[in-house]
Amino acid sequence: MYVSVDRQVPADAFLSCWDGASEQTLDAALARPARRCIEAELLDRSAETYEGADLSTDKVLSLVITTRSAYRHSVVKTYVQALGERLALTEDLRIRVYSAVQEALMNAVLHGNLRIDGGLRGSLDGLIAAQAIIETKLESPQIGSSMIRLDADWTSSALAITVRDSGDGYDYSGVRPAAEDGMSGRGLEILQVFSDRVTVLNGGTTVRLEFQLCP
Amino acid sequence: MQIHMDNAGGPIAMSGEFTFSDHVPFKQMVTEIFAAPGRSVVIDLSKLDFIDSAGLGMLLLARDEAKKNHRELILRRPSGQVKRMFAVTKFNTLFTVEE
Fold first, then answer.
1. What is the pLDDT of residues A67-108, one digit of tens each?
2. Which of residues 51-70 of B touch A (CB under 8 A)?
3. Which family does the record claim for this protein (chain B) (predicted)?
4. CA–CA distance from A34 to each of A2, A46, A62 (Å)?
5. CA B48, CA B15: separation in Å to the nearest integer?
6. Which member of A3, A34, A63, B81 lies 3.0 to 4.6 Å from A150 by CB, making a disulfide possible if both were Cys?
7. Distance (Å) from the C-alpha of residue A191 to the closest C-alpha of chain B?
8. What is the ipTM of this complex?
């Protein structure tokens, strides 16, 4: 891991690089003073990854990773730990943030970038069939290396985390709550219950989660 | 996610994080559980730190597999985030949950 100043972003924007190997190396890459972390494989696309980012504050933590790494590593757990080193998260808030961001991330990976049919989750055999499809797609350079981006920004009273995928979008208006014993459909409910506000943007490729911080 | 099983018919224990990417070992565990004779199956969740909606869905699939085999699936001692997810999704009404 190294921390450097990227020439394409302002001089005070601390950029770190993750090798994509493990949660331990991600933890190191997200350590202070990093504000933005990019997986090494995506470094040559750094200008694209920071398009529209607010680089003027230190109250941000951005992570840009491949779909492959988002699927294979406990990215959200490590990311929330890194947030906890920058702002005070109560245990209640840590659980809520971790639970909601995990749902948003897996939705971005499975439905946004990998386009896995949700129907495959209806049986254990279907899940095994899904695994073969997932592995094939993850090994595809175009799909496996497609971007997932997490951006957190906060003030003394609120935290917002945005999860973006590189897919074609998703019509959330058609999502129906799960039947009580249904196999799937709980993701959106969990986003709504654990965050204070959920906003779907950019045709469904972006989900913004907002949390009030305790005074 | 780690799964701890013994061959003496004792409780099965899950630990760590249980998310979508754990479906292969979970399917294997379910197959092994219901291949062996018995009545009820207890899964100890006391060391499971985290579960997401996909993990909840897989527990429901295991419950359905139990019903097909005329068995009962009992979830024991969920705690922390897992207990909270059970409450949010009313999972306590879908399973026998032992505290």
1. 999 999 999 999 999 999 999 999 999 999 999 999 999 999
2. 52-54, 56-58, 60-62, 65
3. Belongs to the anti-sigma-factor antagonist family.
4. 10, 15, 9
5. 4
6. A63
7. 10
8. 0.92
pLDDT at A188: 85
Choose the most confident range, by mean pLDDT, from A71-75, A115-119, A121-125, B68-72.
Answer: A71-75
Residue type, B98: E
CB A46 within 8 A of CB A18: no
Q: Residue A197: which domain range?
A: 3-212
**Residue A8: pLDDT over 60:** no
Exposed e or buried b for every residue in A23-61, given b needs 16+ CB within 10 A?
A: eebbbbbbeeebbbbbbebbeeebeebbeebeeeeeebb
Full-model pTM = 0.90
What's the CA dihedral at B17, B18, B22, B28 to 10 degrees? 120
Tokens of B59: 């527990």
Domain count, chain A: 1
Q: Torsion angle, CA of B3/B6/B12/B14, rounded to 10 degrees?
A: -20
> Which domains, from first to last, does chain B contain?
2-98 (3.30.750.24)
B96 touches chain A (CB under 8 A): no
**Omega of the bond prior to B25 within 30 degrees of 0, cis?**
no
CATH of the domain at A28: 3.30.565.10
Nearest residue of chain A to residue B65 (CA atoms): A124
**CB atoms B53 and A194 under 8 Å:** no
DSSP state of A149: E
